[in-house]
Specification:
- The protein has four helices and twelve strands; from the N terminus they run βαββαββββααβββββ.
- The chain is of the alpha+beta class.
- The protein folds into two domains: 179 residues, BirA Bifunctional Protein, domain 2, CATH 3.30.930; 45 residues, SH3 type barrels (Roll).
- The strands form two sheets. The protein has a seven-stranded mixed β-sheet with strand order 1-2-3-7-6-5-4, sandwiched between helices. Strands 11-10-9-8-12 form a five-stranded antiparallel β-sheet, with no helix packed on it.
- The longest helix has 15 residues.
- It is globular, with a radius of gyration of 17 Å.
- The structure holds biotin.
- The site of biotin (BTN) has 19 residues, from helix 1, strand 3, strand 6 and strand 7.
């Protein structure tokens, strides 16, 4: 076991904490509450006290970087599934539950680079009830317990996640095969967005390529491979 976990009561963001604190690789910070939790594309990540796992870990930014985010998504999916909630991976790095009326997110991942180090931040919604989410998120978010899983503590979930991640970072073939198996995106009608405020271009997700890019087909028949970081997708109603 290479990781060690530091527990904080409150912090702005565990990613920001690790950026300003020189800790060795595989040091992880778990906060009971974040006052300025960050999501991708400058979004806010709601981090109410004790209801979710808010964790960041310092990793080497070496050759494994390209598949670090997929490895984290596979590790997170294993944790959520082991806690008893049915879930899949939405390209590129959200863990979601499939409901008849669409996808609901229960985990997000944010990787940031700082020189030689990668800061991998992950938030899992563990035991929120519907009313614990802000009104505008109630239709799009869910938690492990809302999906029928058991109410694990953030500490337990963090330990599970880091153990899974440690085994996966040296096994890229397993990461790809498991990512492909559980990725719910291929075959879906989607909107491709280059910027958060874009309305999105309608497309059909075709398949996941070996480099984790997503092949899509637009309505005019044109195809494109989307790389993580270049575009985001959301399901089309
Ligand atoms: C996303 O869904 O867009 C990514 C969410 C990442 C949230 C986690 S919670 C722990 C770490 N600290 C942060 O400020 N963000 C990440």
């Amino acid at each position: 076991m290479r990781h060690s976990i530091y527990i904080l009561d409150e912090v702005d963001s565990t990613n920001e904490y690790l950026k300003r604190t020189p800790l060795p690789e595989w040091s992880a910070v778990l906060a009971r509450r974040q006052t300025a939790g960050k999501g991708r594309l400058g979004r806010r990540f709601e981090s109410p006290e004790g209801l979710g796992m808010y964790l960041s870990v310092v990793l080497p930014a070496d050759g494994s970087l390209a598949w670090l985010t997929p490895a984290a998504a596979v590790a997170a999916r294993r944790v959520v599934a082991a806690l008893g909630a049915e879930c899949g991976i939405k390209w590129v790095n959200d863990i979601i539950a499939e409901r008849p009326d669409g996808w609901r997110k229960l985990c997000g991942i944010l990787v940031e680079l700082r020189g030689e180090r990668a800061i991998l931040g992950i938030g899992i919604d563990l035991r929120q009830r519907e009313e614990d989410f802000p009104e505008e998120l109630r239709e799009v978010c869910t938690s492990v317990t809302l999906e029928g899983g058991r109410a694990a503590s953030p500490e337990e979930a963090a330990e599970m996640f880091l153990c899974e991640l440690e085994t996966l970072v040296s096994d890229e073939n397993t990461v790809f095969s498991e990512y492909e198996r559980y990725c719910v995106t291929p075959g879906k009608e989607i909107l491709v967005k280059r910027l958060p405020q874009d309305a999105g271009v309608p497309a059909r997700a075709l398949r996941l390529a070996r480099d984790y890019s997503l092949e899509v087909e637009y309505e005019d028949g044109r195809t494109e491979r989307l790389r993580a970081g270049e575009a985001s997708i959301r399901p089309r109603e």
